[in-house]
């Protein structure tokens, strides 16, 4: 009887020790991931690589959408910047894969919509999104409301657990910060080149109008 009690206690201690080791391993992995997310997207090399890819993509957009209006061109530039950012992530995150997948789905949807025949919707099939009279939506807790908002902001995160959602959001925010820095650098470079070209043109015109002695 004493031996059975001893074996039971030994098994319980062993189970607790295994759980502690597993918990430490998970904490170590999470700390390493958080550290990598802090380092990632902050190096000059990554920013330069993204900037070069972005400039090449924007040149293609400029050539293909030269006759488009300002709104369409701005949307194309924004979509191109996000696409290049997702490609730079190399498919290692949910949000980057979701951006590329959604672009493909949107392209297929627009293609089907352009080729589809128009249909008239009957009044009987229309549904109202308003809730019935006397029915009110339940107010969610503050944490759940904020989690839902975060899921809508981070692409591809609607079905993630809260720890994975926070990890994706951290990486996505770091990537967006790098995108802003890169685009600001590209805009500054293009503005400087434009000002230099304008100054050169003015100098050339002034030299042409200068009377020769």
TrEMBL record:
GO MF terms held by the record: protein dimerization activity
Protein keywords: Nucleus, Transcription, Transcription regulation
InterPro entries: bHLH_dom, HLH_DNA-bd_sf, IBH1-like, IBH1_N
KW Nucleus (keyword) present: yes
A GO cellular-component term linked to this record: nucleus
Pfam families named in the record: IBH1_N (PF26576)
One GO-annotated biological process of the protein: regulation of DNA-templated transcription
Subcellular localization(s) per the UniProt record: Nucleus
Domain of life: Eukaryota
Residue stretches making up the BHLH domain: 127-176
Ranges of Low complexity composition bias in the record: 122-134
Region described as Disordered: spans on this chain: 112-141
Protein name listed in UniProt: BHLH domain-containing protein
Annotated organism of origin: Nepenthes gracilis (Slender pitcher plant)
Upper lineage: Eukaryota, Viridiplantae, Streptophyta, Embryophyta, Tracheophyta
């Amino acid at each position: 009887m004493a031996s059975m009690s001893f074996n039971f206690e030994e098994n319980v201690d062993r189970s607790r020790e295994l759980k502690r080791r597993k918990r430490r391993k998970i904490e170590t992995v999470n700390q390493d991931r958080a550290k990598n997310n802090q380092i990632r997207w902050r190096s000059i090399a990554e920013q330069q690589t993204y900037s070069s890819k972005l400039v090449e993509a924007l040149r293609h957009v400029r050539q293909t959408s030269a006759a488009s209006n300002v709104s369409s061109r701005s949307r194309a530039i924004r979509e191109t910047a996000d696409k290049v950012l997702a490609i730079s992530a190399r498919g290692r995150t949910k949000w980057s894969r979701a951006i590329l997948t959604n672009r493909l789905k949107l392209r297929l949807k627009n293609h089907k919509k352009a080729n589809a025949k128009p249909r008239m919707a009957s009044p009987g099939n229309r549904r109202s999104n308003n809730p019935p009279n006397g029915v009110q939506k339940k107010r969610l807790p503050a944490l759940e409301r904020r989690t839902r908002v975060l899921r809508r902001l981070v692409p591809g995160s609607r079905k993630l657990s809260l720890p994975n959602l926070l990890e994706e959001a951290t990486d996505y925010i770091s990537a967006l910060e790098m995108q802003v820095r890169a685009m600001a650098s590209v805009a500054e470079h293009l503005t400087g080149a434009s000002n230099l070209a304008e100054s050169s043109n003015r100098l050339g015109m002034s030299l042409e109008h200068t009377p020769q002695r």
